[in-house]
Structure formats: structure tokens, C-alpha cells
Task: inverse folding
């Protein structure tokens, strides 16, 4: 018999992380796509770092950074009554950092693949950078936006190392991947199979719908 709590926490975490990252990623990806700053390569490397960094390493440093024994953690706890480790907030912070490249990179590529004439024409018509971004650029990279959303959402659902380190294994932080691990440790393979099958079916359905949407979108353009 499975508990539905871990699945609901996983869904809540994926929705929260994806929503917040979508807001953060658009201006960040825009800057990475069009900036000519010399230090841009440094930020690109930082964004891509979670792709190669073991999640347990990232989770460990987040735990150390926001622990009440650290200056940052103590400051947040004392002045704002905010505790990051072993809370849902900690899960969101860890997931946002670990899923950052899955949202930023597709949007960045989408911006870079646009014709420069789009921006130039918009500026010529008197549109500001903000108006150009909202009314001209974003509508032309809908596929990239959808790709970033789906990759971020799916990646967050499957996270394990980061959420285990920063969130622990408490009732309010036990996501589905940790529930699977617990079930296997208890030799409860039936529950592990159920959790795994639900996540597999959910992820496959999302990807199938995305590919179907992209196919129809591409066909309509043709």
C-alpha cells in the first residue's frame, strides 16, 4: 500500500520550481543570448554546472550554506525566521538550482535562433526592449519555452540526491523518489513498483503530449 503524500509533494515541488524558474529564466536567458559581456562565459558555465555536478555535492553545499551554523543560515533564521534545510522551502531552493540549465538553455537557444531582423524591426517601430521581448520574441520561441517547462518539470519529479540532502526524509519533504528508496530498503517492492510506475507513466504522458504539440505546431507552420 502506497502513501499519496510523497506524490502530492513531488507534484507541488515540480509545479513550484517550474513556475519560479520560468520567471527567472526568461530575462537570464535573454541576457545570455544577446549580451556581449566578457564574463558571459562564466555565467554560462555556472548555469551548466548542475549538468555535470553530482547532485549530492550540490545538496551538501546547500545544506552547509543554509545551516543554522553558517552565517547565512543564522542570519535568515534570526532576522526573517526562515529555515532552509529540511523544509519544503529547501526543496524548492535546491530544485531551482539543480534544474536551472533545463529551463535556461532551451530558452537561450530559442532566442539565439531568432533572426536579428525581428528585434531591429520592432525597435524601428518604436517598441521598447520590454515590449519587444513580450510581444515579438517570446511568441516566436513558443517551442523553446515549452521545451524548457517540460524538461524542468520532468527533471524535478525525478530528483533524488539534492532533495535528500537539503530536505531530508521527513513527512513534509519526502518526495516520490525518496519514497521509492525507502520502499526498496523495506523490501516492499510492491510499493516501489507502484511509485515507479506512476512516475514513469506520468513522465511518458507529458513527453508524448509535448512531441505531439511540437509536431502539430511544425505542421501548421509548413
Result:
Amino acid at each position: 500500500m502506497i502513501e499519496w503524500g510523497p506524490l502530492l509533494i513531488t507534484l507541488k515541488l515540480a509545479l513550484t520550481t517550474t513556475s519560479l524558474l520560468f520567471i527567472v529564466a526568461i530575462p537570464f536567458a535573454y541576457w545570455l543570448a544577446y549580451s556581449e559581456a566578457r564574463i558571459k562565459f562564466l555565467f554560462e558555465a555556472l548555469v551548466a554546472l548542475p549538468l555535470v555536478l553530482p547532485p549530492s555535492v550540490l545538496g551538501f553545499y546547500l545544506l552547509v550554506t543554509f545551516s543554522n551554523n553558517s552565517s547565512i543560515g543564522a542570519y535568515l533564521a534570526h532576522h526573517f525566521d526562515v529555515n532552509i534545510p529540511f523544509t519544503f522551502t529547501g526543496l524548492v531552493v535546491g530544485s531551482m538550482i539543480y534544474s536551472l540549465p533545463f529551463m535556461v538553455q532551451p530558452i537561450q537557444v530559442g532566442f539565439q535562433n531568432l533572426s536579428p531582423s525581428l528585434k531591429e524591426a520592432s525597435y524601428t517601430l518604436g517598441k521598447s526592449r520590454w515590449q519587444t521581448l513580450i510581444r515579438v520574441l517570446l511568441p516566436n520561441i513558443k517551442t523553446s519555452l515549452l521545451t524548457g517547462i517540460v524538461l524542468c518539470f520532468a527533471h524535478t519529479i525525478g530528483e533524488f540526491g539534492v532533495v535528500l540532502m537539503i530536505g531530508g526524509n521527513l513527512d513534509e519533504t519526502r518526495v516520490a523518489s525518496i519514497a521509492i528508496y525507502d520502499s526498496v530498503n523495506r523490501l516492499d517492492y510492491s510499493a516501489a513498483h507502484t511509485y515507479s510506475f506512476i512516475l514513469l507513466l506520468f513522465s511518458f504522458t507529458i513527453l508524448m503530449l509535448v512531441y505531439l504539440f511540437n509536431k502539430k505546431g511544425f505542421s501548421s507552420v509548413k
Notes: Residues 189-221 form the longest helix (33 residues). The chain has a mean pLDDT of 91. The radius of gyration is 20 Å. The CA atoms of residues 37 and 204 lie 40 Å apart.
